[in-house]
Automatic annotation (TrEMBL):
Pfam families: RDD. It comes from the Bacteria. InterPro entries: Pra-immunoreactive, RDD. Keywords: Cell membrane, Membrane, Transmembrane, Transmembrane helix. The chain crosses the membrane at residues 12-34, 46-64, 91-110, 116-133. It is a multi-pass membrane protein. This is RDD. The keyword Transmembrane helix applies. It is found in: Cell membrane.
Length: 160
């Protein structure tokens, strides 16, 4: 089982972010309509919680099937340590642990009155550091995968 390169995994991650824009748009519209929210600042914490759940459903569903839409494009598959498809419980654990990409940096900037651009720089810096940490892992896996008992592998292309 070959581990995809860091550049390929990060490109997949970036593409996943673009696809998630559509998910956020539809979920946000649905939330706003159902909650009768008139102002963007009203119900924002409820919206964030709703989006956390929607993201969880999206990722747990696709990871338990083996791949998200972006992972299919980049021929990357998530499997357990034995190379078998992951269960929904393991996919849920992986989803929660994936927040290690953002939560430490967000928790670090929360107590300070930083500008938006300063916060973005700190969060992006943490993401880069977390990605580089994967180079220290013997199988070059991300640390949330190691903790969840999963791994990303290159999926062989099918010749048609």
């Amino acid at each position: 089982m070959e581990t995809p390169s860091l550049a390929r995994r990060m490109a997949c991650w970036l593409y996943e972010g673009m696809l998630m824009f559509g998910v956020v748009f539809i979920a946000g519209y649905l939330f706003g309509t159902l909650s009768q929210t008139r102002n963007a600042m009203d119900n924002r914490h409820a919206l964030q919680a709703f989006l956390f759940v929607v993201f969880g459903i999206y990722f747990v569903w696709f990871w338990s099937q083996g791949q998200t839409l972006a992972m299919k494009t980049w021929n990357i598959q998530v499997v357990d340590r034995a190379g078998q498809p992951i269960t929904q419980a393991r996919a849920l654990l992986r989803y929660v642990l994936c927040w290690l990409w953002f939560l430490p940096a967000l928790a670090g900037v929360a107590p300070f009155k930083l500008t938006g651009s300063e916060s973005v720089v700190i969060v992006i810096s943490w993401v880069v550091i977390w990605a580089i940490f994967s180079r220290l892992q013997p199988q070059q896996q991300f640390w949330h995968d190691v903790l969840a008992g999963t791994r990303l592998v290159s999926k062989p292309r099918l010749n048609r």
